[in-house]
Amino acid sequence: MAARSLWAARLRVQSLLDSTAAFYGREWLCPFSTATQRTAGEDCSSEDPPDELGPSLAERALRLKAVKLEKEVQDLTVRCQRAVADSENIRRRTQRCVEDAKIFGIQNFCKDLVEVADILEKTTECISGEREPGEQKLTLEKVFQGLSLLEAKLKSVFAKHGLEKMTPIGDKYDPHEHELICHVPAGVGVQPGTVALVRQDGYKLHGRTIRLAQVEVAVESQRRL
């Protein structure tokens, strides 16, 4: 009986010690955990800005970037407007130059033809007035000299401006340069398919045909049209 009571007393003492140890164990752990959390919080606050300042800095950066982009857009807009204006001015000047070239492109040619007109006018003056019968021969000689001078001047003007008269007699018929009027029988020294006679002279300007020569083409007698 005494032994059982002693055993029970020991169990109560052991239980009390275990409870006390458990109690003091929680007390030691809780302060450590709280201190650890407080230290971690202080460290975070010392390194990172508060949450309230984050959006403000980001908003300020976005505003600065927006202002910069807006300025770039304005600069590009001004440059684009200037480029469009310059392009329009160049287009107008080019169009004006083209129109002037169409109107005054033959100015030099016309100036040279004026000299031909002067010679022709002087020649016609020689035969317009009333002449004595004895002066008719002299008048004809002046007219002939005037016409010869006129022809030489025309040839000089044509050569100066690249205008060339075609002389296709004896050449092979070319539909790009000749306009066929009719066929004629080939004679002595005239080959079939070649130009036998020129009805109207053709002309080339710097190698380009601007008027076809009206020609008669030689063919064999049985093929005459």
Structural account:
- The protein contains four helices and six strands.
- The chain is elongated, with a radius of gyration of 58 Å.
Condensed summary:
By secondary structure, this protein is of the alpha+beta class. It has helices at residues 2-47, 53-104, 107-128, 136-160, and strands at 163-165, 178-185, 195-200, 203-205, 208-211, 213-219. It is elongated and about 175 Å long.
Approximate strand percentage:
5-15%
Report the principal-axis shape. Answer: elongated
Unreliable spans: 26-49
Mean pLDDT: 77
Secondary structural class = alpha+beta
What kind of sheet is the major sheet?
A: 3 strands, antiparallel
What quaternary form is this? single chain
Strand order of the largest sheet: 1-4-5
Helix/strand order, N-terminal first: HHHHEEEEEE
- Over all CA atoms, what is the radius of gyration? 58 Å
End-to-end separation: 166 Å
Annotation field: number of helices: 4
Work out the number of β strands: 6
Task: Write the SSE topology.
Elements: H1 2-47, H2 53-104, H3 107-128, H4 136-160, E1 163-165, E2 178-185, E3 195-200, E4 203-205, E5 208-211, E6 213-219
Parallel strand pairs: 2-6
Antiparallel strand pairs: 1-4, 3-6, 4-5
Properties at a glance:
alpha+beta; 3-stranded mixed beta sheet
